[in-house]
Amino acid sequence: MSKTFSVVSHSLPKIDALSLIQGKPAYTDDLAPADALVVKLLRSPHAFAKILSIDKSQALALEGVACVLDWRDVPRIPYTRAGQGHPEPSPHDRFILDRYVRFVGDEVAVVAAESEAVALKALSLIKVEYEILEPLLDFEAAVDNSLVIHPEPEIHDMFPIGFEPKRNIAASYSMELGDIEKELASSEIVLSRSYKTQSQAHVAMEPHAAFAYLDIHQRLVIYASTQNPFHTRRLLGQALGLPLSRIRVVKPRIGGGFGSKQQVHVEPFVSLVCLATGRAARCSLSRREVFEATFCRHQMRIDMRIGAARNGKINAIDMQVLSNTGAYGEHALTVFMVGGSKTLPLYNKVKAVRFGGKVVYTNTRSAGAFRGYGAIQGNFALESMIDDLASALKMDPVQLRILNMVKEGESSEVYRVMGEGREGVDMIFESCKLDYCVARGCELIGWDKEPLAREVAPGKIRAKGMAIAMQGSGIPLVDMGSASMELQDGGCFKLRIGATDLGTGSDTILAQIAAEALGVPLSSINVYASDTDHTPFDVGAYASSTTYVSGNAVLAAAKKMKAVLISAVAQRHNVSIDDVRFDGVNFFMTNGRFIQDLNSLSLDTLYHDGEKMATLNATASFSGQKSPPPYVAGFVEIELDSETGKIDVVRYVAVVDCGVAINPALARIQVEGGVLQGIGMALFENVKYDAKGRLKTNSLRSYTIPSRKDIGAIVVEFAESYEPSGPFGAKSVAEVSIDSPPAAIANAIFNAAGIRLTETPFTPERVLKALQERKT
Amino acid sequence: MTLSCTINNKAVRLECSPGDVLADVLRAAGYKEVKKACGTGNCGLCTILMDGLPVASCSIFAARAQGKTITTIQGLKKEATELAAFIAAEGAEQCGYCSPGFALMALAMVKEFRARGMQNFDEAEARHYLAGNLCRCSGYQGQMRALKNYWESRNE
Ligand code: FES
Ligand code: FES
Q1: How far apart are the C-alpha atoms of A130 and A132, rounded to whole Å?
Q2: Of A186, A349, A658, B145, which is most buried, counting CB atoms within 10 Å of its CB?
């Protein structure tokens, strides 16, 4: 298994690092044309209302206003903002602008003006009369409520997803393997508990931004901060009723996404203005708008039951989920299904397993894709439950997991039955070093060295906890990536990819894969991504797919490229292709005789070969037949202050099996960042509304994300692992890193004080309350 | 109104209106290295140096810059390039959106720590100094490793 690589598996700096650190213009808003109209959005102040009238006359009369558009000015075509495969698993339940507004921040009108100041002034001059409707804010009361959020007749699903808008249900699903009630009834220990997870905000540092213009062919060109330019193009075509041939989407550098840019948030509006005025139009959301009107993590209630034998063998797991999709159903079905499909296979030897539930509408902002979607929620419930079981059995939680968890060479029925919005795939887990990850994590945190909890000062308890987690590597049979390569004069290569580097460094690691396969240095690969006119198709960066799916496409393209080079040399020199070798610089005969170098080949094929001149190129696509899971064993040491209820993370240890890390430094940073986002969700990040459905946490003052003072050490190690189906042995790493902290920290709190917190985040108030309840 | 100030060692005149905040005026004038993520003084991405001291340019009016000397990361070419290499070696910039503000603040910090006579890099102090520079991607560990390495390379 230990393979030696020359480019892959090396921590090379990102190819765009130095420019980005020094602030070279690279992101969407940096590149917008200076004379573009500034687009601003009028947003609903009400959680649920019908627009009775809109008077735009004063706004339109203001000098410098180019247009004011409302629901009467847009095509009435239901669509979804979620960038996913086609047909979309999300219901088509919204319009670019509608007569109804369904959350505070929902778009009412679009203004375009010569300057930001004029656009803002114009917003204040639009007079809207609303019929205010009673909002439905409590997701646990949504099903069959007399308030119906989506009564409109045009909305629909694209295939059966359990869509019942009259009951406020965006999607539902259920499955059972084995006989759950029978297995629970015959289990010696049965536990049941209900867990809740909050809604979390992505807070990608670059706010959502886009600009649009008409090119010299009168085609609509949109630059957007997006994770999926090709989906964006399709969604815009759908929503605007425009043929796709008229639309081009370009993705510049992205200032973070984490799923928030997997949906279109500003693209439809700059497009509308551009089409209406013929002028370039730009829009960059304020942080407040990002908080109020883009998506967040699905809030969930998860009801768990688990049955086991006295010896610790788990017989049955039942997971029932209620998920809050907010005003619209983007990613409703898929996020919720991942809650089971990317957690339950961890315990693949149970006799029965059941998963099901509903995703409901409320008058809060929409939930959408967010790193670890569904999995982090499901993992919190499942992994908390496993520790509860360990405590009931008086077993060490690590031993209980080792006894039951998935091992290399096994498979999972759940993985076969459940995919994302569809059936899963039957696959053997060919690389699974979870046992190593757990053992190594124990060593690093000192699991067996000292008691799991000890008082270090009066009222201050240090305690350890752990959880394991898994994810996928792309969505099998749905996600597809492509790459194309071309030899250029100078002996370097163009690598064009549809994959989307949203800060993860994927442009660099995909170039590393190409360089490794060709045997050339990284500097010989010129990457261009992604542009719907100029790069081949790729679904985009989500579902932990880029390294595995796009990486396999790049590997295939590079292998083809090498074959094309060799066959060109063989033809030019009238020798057999089997006799030609390429060492990255020179071509040789097998007997060692020098033939020519790469640079001369590039010049010959482009300039010297007369009627035989041709570009040498290769294109390849890849769609996964499987989705090999990466794994994490997360161990945490916390300090609990029993006076204040405050929890500090002293140390977080994450031992990761992501297959071969194509670029270990970049993989490490991803894990460190993911762990910290998971800690933020576990400890304090919380999206809060007031009684009228107005967001209270609408700035970085009121919504706190972890700062560098909020964390002790994060220790990351990688297991030696090789995934046979991955490019050079790689799996994914992006999402799995976020999944373990909520459960690991909850388990540490239990070990510290014997209190079981069942709702994230574990704020000082909740900890204190639980401590008090324990006393009484 | 017209604003006269020195930006990155060049005397400039910028057009702006009384209510404009400095970050917006700088960006409109082409200083795209000044990023803006919160607009409320909470993230540090819009950090610039004004008469040598770091300030959040989203939280002051442009008029305050009249007659002042302003430095963005582009104005610190030599130091910025050197520090950038250490950040890149750790892969500590992910999306890179927070990097210019972070790098500028870090350079100001190093200068201040040196002036105070600090010999060995004090990570806890540094975390405190840089607490207002948020990064949502990296988890900060790589940034701190890069800073430590940069500091030690200056000691040699
Ligand atoms: S944009 Fe100025 S501190 Fe955040
Ligand atoms: S690297 Fe993305 S916010 Fe810091």
Answers
A1: 6
A2: A658
Mutate to test the pocket of ligand 1, among B34, B46, B60 (most ligand atoms within 8 A of CB): B46
Give pLDDT, residue A2: 46
To which CATH superfamily is domain B2-72 assigned? Beta-grasp domain (3.10.20.30)
Distances (CA, A) of A709 to A234, A333, A517, A705, A713: 43, 37, 42, 11, 11
CA of A256, closest atom in ligand 2: 2
pLDDT surpasses 70 at A3:
no
- Select from A405, A375, A377, A387 the least CA-distant residue to A306: A387
Pocket lining for ligand 1, CB < 6 angstroms: B 36-39, 41-46, 56, 58-59
- State the architecture of B75-155 in CATH terms: Orthogonal Bundle (1.10)
Max Cα separation, chain A?
Answer: 92
A37 burial class (0-12, 13-18, 19+ CB within 10 angstroms)?
A: buried
β-partners of residue A466 are: A635
Q: What pTM was estimated for this model as a whole?
A: 0.97
- Pairing verdict, β A586-589 and A594-597: antiparallel
A734 Cα distance to chain centroid? 8
Cα angle A31, A32, A36; round to 5:
160
Q: Would you say the CB of residue B96 lies under 6 angstroms from ligand 2?
A: yes
How many Å separate Cα A567 from the centre of its chain? Answer: 41
Domain boundaries, given as residue ranges, for chain B = 2-72, 75-155
Q: Which domains does chain A have, with CATH numbers?
A: 32-133+205-256+261-293 (3.90.1170.50), 299-475+626-775 (3.30.365.10), 480-623 (3.30.365.10)
DSSP state of A351: S
